[in-house]
Amino acid sequence: MNRIWQKEISLERLNAMVPGTMLEAAQIQFSEFGDDYLSATMPITDAVRQPMGLLHGGASAALAETVGSIAGFFACPEGCHILGTEIIANHLKAMHSGSVVATATPIRLGGLLQLWQINISNQADPNQLVCSARHSVIVRHK
């Protein structure tokens, strides 16, 4: 796939968006991007565990929506922004500790609608898929 980014993208710019947001509370950090993907990591801490000690499904969904939405923003033209409309997350593997990495890749990048696939894996073993999500966003032109 060709380079999808329509705005200037860098890890410094991505991570500058974290302070003062939910991303900071969950310790989400953008870790990598390529021509057609964006990745972020999240450690499994008490802040993202459910009472039984497992990674909270809502935290996985929030991570997926974060990476999909930020990818969508950088994949739309200057002067545009995006609004999330739907997140569907399938939780596939329980985790108690460690870190996860979420990687967003586009399924469709239309002028008005984008659809993103976000796979969340165990950072220590990328073959262990923890959550598979799809995120729809609307592109708003100013």
Tell me about this structure:
By secondary structure, this protein is an alpha+beta fold. The protein has a single domain (11-141), classed as Hotdog Thioesterase (Thiol Ester Dehydrase, Chain A). It contains 3 helices and 6 strands. The protein has helices at residues 11-15, 22-25, 57-74; strands at 29-34, 37-43, 80-91, 99-109, 113-122, 125-141. It has a 6-stranded antiparallel sheet with strand order 1-2-4-5-6-3. Strand 4 (99-109) and strand 5 form a beta hairpin. The radius of gyration is 14 Å and the shape is globular. The two termini are 27 Å apart. The relative contact order is 0.20.
Kindly state the mean pLDDT as a whole number? Answer: 96
Q: What is the molecular shape?
A: globular
What percent strand? 35-45%
CATH superfamily membership, which one? Hotdog Thioesterase
What proportion of the residues is helical, as a percent range? 10-25%
Q: Structural class, from secondary structure content? A: alpha+beta
- The rounded Rg comes to 14 Å
> Distance between the terminal alpha carbons, to the nearest Å?
27 Å
Total count of domains: 1
Low-confidence stretches: none
CATH topology: the name is Thiol Ester Dehydrase, Chain A
Kindly report the spatial arrangement of strands forming the biggest sheet.
1-2-4-5-6-3
SSE series: HHEEHEEEE
Q: Helix count, per DSSP?
A: 3
Protein name: Hotdog fold thioesterase
Family: Belongs to the thioesterase PaaI family.
Organism: Celerinatantimonas yamalensis
Keywords: Hydrolase
